[in-house]
Structure formats: structure tokens, C-alpha cells
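Here comes my example:
=====
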Amino acid sequence: MWPYPKVAAHRGGGTLAPENTLAAFRCGMEHGFRAVEFDVMLTKDEQPILMHDASFGRTLPGEGKIAEHTLADLQKLDAGGWHSPQYAGEPVCTLAQALEFCRANGIWMNIEIKPAGDAYAVRTGEVAGQAVGAFFAAEIAAHVPGRNDRSLPLFSSFSFDALMAAKRAAPGIPRGFLMDMITADWEARLQALGAVALHTNHKNLTPELAQAVKRAGYGLFCYTVNEPTRAQEILAWGVDGFCTDRVDLIGQA
């Protein structure tokens, strides 16, 4: 039900490096991680980049919306200086760069599709699905469920529409549905998506909900767990995996 790594570095390197950048991936690697979670958003010219916030101001300097700017515009900006001086000048990372880096370094990926708004949901899912499906075409063709599942990444999203679009574009890439709170329709949604897992906020999870998800035959993944004692607690409930910001406190194993 969960053939993937147990712990993934949140947005590449957690809080130790500028999120969703190659520098973050390198940081995660330095702490022993070979599994990452990162966010994919579209630019104005529909180029998939690694970005969490739909607006400027936190990880990119300026004002306005990410979706109103082209890739060329965004690549002129500093995506690392907000974190610390040592990362000043770190560029915005494209999905293509992330895929290449992770393949070259044996890093498994939880690719969260992060539309810049509801209006962008379907197109973001389509573009991400097309890009990842094409990149992993050989692995999809060679995939044998239960034998080499880690050869493929996992899509996740809070957007049902985005995941459905990714399913249509790349049916061979597994999917996990993200829910901040697990609502009564969770199983129907997973069935419609053909999902393999439910991803949820560990703060809103209970042992009873965890057991229900596991009884239904799905993987259960949580975000974002930063305390070792809490990690042990939810794993004891049946949680299969989680992402963490504290790659310095919680190892991949």
C-alpha cells in the first residue's frame, strides 16, 4: 500500500535551505535524504517551475502574481536570498531541472501539483502530467506493480481537478490526494482519482481515521512532521510516510 520511502524532505531541504530549489535538494542529500516533496506551478507562458506561493513577497522579491510573469522574468530573480546570505542568487528551479537532478542522484519524488488558483487547476495538472509522463516514459512501460514501484514518482495535490487532469495526461504516474482535514467523501474521491494514497495534515489525523484509510487499502502520508516523538506516534497509528522540514532531526530511515 506504500512502497515508497517513509520520510521525504519537505520542499527539498526543509527549513535548512531555500525551498523548492536545487540548493534545497543538495541540502537534503547532505543530510542523507533520497526522497523529496516539492511543488509545481505554471508561469504565464505555461512553463512548470518549482514554487509554493502564488504571489511574490516571501520566496521571491516583488509584488504581484507568479502566473502573471514568464519563466524568463522569474529566472532573473533571486530565489535564495530570502533564506540566508549564503543562498543569495539561487535561481528559480524548473520542473525539468528538478527531474533531471533527482534522476541523476537517485532521489524519489512526491510531486505536488500546486495551481496558482482554481482557474489554473486543469492546465497545471495537464502540463505537469505531460512533462512527468514523458520524462518517465521508459519507467512507466517497465513498471510492474509491487516490484519496481519506486522507479516512478508520485503526484499529489489538494486540487481534485488538477489531479484528474494529471491522470488523463499521465495515467501511469501514481496519485495521492491531499486533504487538510479528512472529510466524509475521502474514499469516493480517491476512487474517482484512481489514487494509491491519501495525504493529510498530521495535526488533524486521529488513530481512527488512520485505521479507516488503511482498512480501505490505501497508503497514508502526512505533512509536515517536525518532531521525532510525533513521527513515532503517527507511525504507530499506521501512517506509512511523511515529509519533514527538520531534516537535521529526522533521518530518512
